[in-house]
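Note on ligand handling. Small-molecule inputs were canonicalized before submission; formal charges were left as drawn, and no protonation-state enumeration was performed. Where a ligand contained multiple stereocentres, the stereochemistry in the source SMILES was retained. For manganese (II) ion, this procedure yielded the string shown in the input block below.
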Amino acid sequence: MLTSKFEDLKAYLKGKSVLITTHESVDLDGFVSCYILKIFFTNYFNTKTTLYLSEFSKTTREYLQKVSQKFRELDFSFNENVDISKLDLIFILDTNNLAQVSVFDKLNITSAQIPFIFIDHHLNLKNDYKNNLTSLNIINDEISSTSEIIYDMCEFFNFALELPYKFLLISAILTDSGFFKYGNNDTIMRISRLLDEKLDLQEILSTLEFEQEISEKIARIKALQRLKLIRSKDWLIGTTHVSSFEAGVASLLINLGLDVSIVYSEKKRTFRISTRAKKSVCLKTGLHLGKILKEVAEEYEGSGGGHDGAASLNGANELKKVLNKIIEKIKQILN
Ligand SMILES: [Mn+2]
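Structure output:
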């Protein structure tokens, strides 16, 4: 249960000064979970709390623009000066992989200097990081978003959330749960408790519609032109490559009718692979892309992980071999 973790956290936080951060290219769930956690810590525990957020993804920026027009009282300026000499603790949200976190580099601290805690909903990589307070980590990959964990915490301590904060939480939960596609009963229950007479679901949905840029449209079409189909029994696996937007393309391929999609993009020295699988395929066969990509990444000195139906890998060596290994492992499980 998370509730005893919340109590432990409360005890540990006493008198500490904390920094909250998330992964790079901050998505909506990363942003909202950090933002609400800061509000909660500041107002409920009286904890001195600083936010450190690296560059936002394009959709996050667009979303924040729309929301700040609706709720003019919300303050989305984050140029906080971080005085690291006064920091006791760092919270890292929406990832449990330090390779995706820039705070240590950017603030010129080593991860060994200040203890840190993960709050996350991705597969627990159980990396043996020195100074990670593992007993206080809250990592649960059965929850569809980090924002839900933060909301659970607010509810547990009876912390009342103002309307704009509810709006933000609902937006993040809807996005990360794929509009309930990756959610469960609890996801719907939380949204239902968050909804308010004064909150209009249709309005929230409309702020979550984003127009694609022409470059993304072209990437999608090119990805389809390059698509290679692998049939394994009655399962269809598709592989293709793009120069960016690999995650969106991987989802597109699933909507198109593939059971599993593998999309890679090669940069100068590195590459990134995004994979998706139909939920029904995962349930039926036990396929877990996050586990497969983690295993393969370890073998080739990359980093990888994620959920059963959505996972990614960052690497620098042997792209062809890595791809073949992933395909082989997927086939093994499907057969
Ligand atoms: Mn998330």
